[in-house]
Amino acid sequence: MAAPPPNPVPLAYQAGTSLAVPPWLNKGDNAWQMIAATLVGLQSVPGLVILYGSIVKKKWAVNSAFMALYAFAAVIICWVTWAYKMSFGHKLIPMWGKAGPALGQKYLLQWANLPQTTQYYHNGDLETAMIQPFYPMATMVWFQCVFAAITLILLAGSLLARMNFRAWMMFVPLWLTFSYTVGAFSVWGGGFLFHWGVMDYSGGYVIHLSSGIGGFTAAYWVGPRLRKDRERFPPNNVLLMLAGAGLLWMGWAGFNGGDPYAANIDSSMAVLNTNICAATSLLVWTLLDVIFFKKPSVIGAVQGMITGLVCITPGAGLVQGWAAIIMGILSGSVPWFTMMIVHKKSKLLQQVDDTLGVFHTHAVAGLLGGILTGIFAEPELCQLFLPILSAKGAVYGGTGGTQVLKQIVGGLFIIGWNVLVTTIICLVIKLVVPLRMSEEELLVGDDAVHGEEAYALWGDGEKYDPTRHDIYSDETVHKPAIGATQVV
């Protein structure tokens, strides 16, 4: 039998007018952007879900993992309903966009009312040009959504093992709306810091500094864990924690590699710099642990990995490889110093129970990375990014020192806004439900809060019951059939 003739190509596609593949669509950029978004999503689910569920005490494994899972789902719905337009829509005030839905064909199929032949436009009054990617707006909505989601999940790391889950359910949409969207619009979406030329390549300020400061502030208002939990809080599964950390590290290729909004030279530079800085930071942190504490800590190595990833984020595609190594050395030592030395001597840091040290690993590392970006940003790479017109780091002379000042001011704005808004949100929620779990829930953990436990293991305070723990624990199997001979 002869082979059937090939399917004819639709005339509309031949003419380049297919609705599914319009002439302006860059399929390569679109494919990379969707992959990058998926990688960032995997950092949260399952990455941080696994990491959180493993790095805490056994009795808090379910609650910690569920806080991350809930935040991921809640952010998605809030994002497409109103928060995306507040972050990347039309300006309401210089630091905030107008709320609106990102649903339906108008928003999900194409970019609104901009010439598809123009990549970006520039107003002579602006320091920084705007960009228009050549792919559907749906791609951008989802890409930015997973960034918003991971910010809330990172913040949750400060609140594990004591925050009332009902309060967390309220906190997520409120903080997303009144804190995250302001930082995102101000720095990325066309707000005043964007036009002033503050550089945040992929979220050192918008994501990490804000989650670190927001988490620290919320931890103050929620209150500490039980005293015995603060004194001894061993991870319930170190190997599984490493699996979550590995997903976080590998997913950072999408985190930083996707932010040029194209599969281009800058994207490749960002991915390479990300891994250089993370590896350097991990090694430096481990070396410091060996020198001062005589033992290499696996948890310390993970913290060093994270601080390296965070530090390079604001400059991943803006600096050269040698600068990424310097940033890795500093990200492996400065947060180590604040966590291991300063924290133990500071009354404020001792008073606030930041469960996973998010203040050090994200706020300190994020601010450090933002300032270092102002020092090391290479002029040609800057112009590959948005482009950022006439921007360069301090080491390149000229007006480079001004960029450092801009980076500091941008960081201070994010810090101040998050302290203020997070405080207000916590006080408002406190009027409705308690921020902290009850004493009974704090004593029991997951079983009291969710009615579920992470591990069904005999021996954790149980008495041996052969009907439950024998090989044949199910009565329908354990009882011999009628007429059968029972072996004694």
From TrEMBL:
InterPro entries for this protein: Ammonium/urea_transptr, Ammonium_transpt, Ammonium_transpt_CS, NH4_transpt_AmtB-like_dom
A single MF term (Gene Ontology): ammonium channel activity
Membrane topology: Multi-pass membrane protein
Ammonium transporter AmtB-like domain boundaries: 31-455
Cellular compartment(s): Cell membrane
Transmembrane segments annotated in the record for this chain: 31-53, 65-84, 141-161, 173-196, 202-223, 235-255, 267-291, 298-316, 322-343, 355-377, 408-433
Pfam (any one): Ammonium_transp
Swiss-Prot/TrEMBL keywords: Ammonia transport, Membrane, Transmembrane, Transmembrane helix, Transport
GO cellular component terms, A-Z: plasma membrane
Family listed: Belongs to the ammonia transporter channel (TC 1.A.11.2) family.
NCBIfam families the record matches: amt (TIGR00836)
Protein name: Ammonium transporter
Species this protein is from: Morella rubra
Taxonomic lineage: Eukaryota, Viridiplantae, Streptophyta, Embryophyta, Tracheophyta
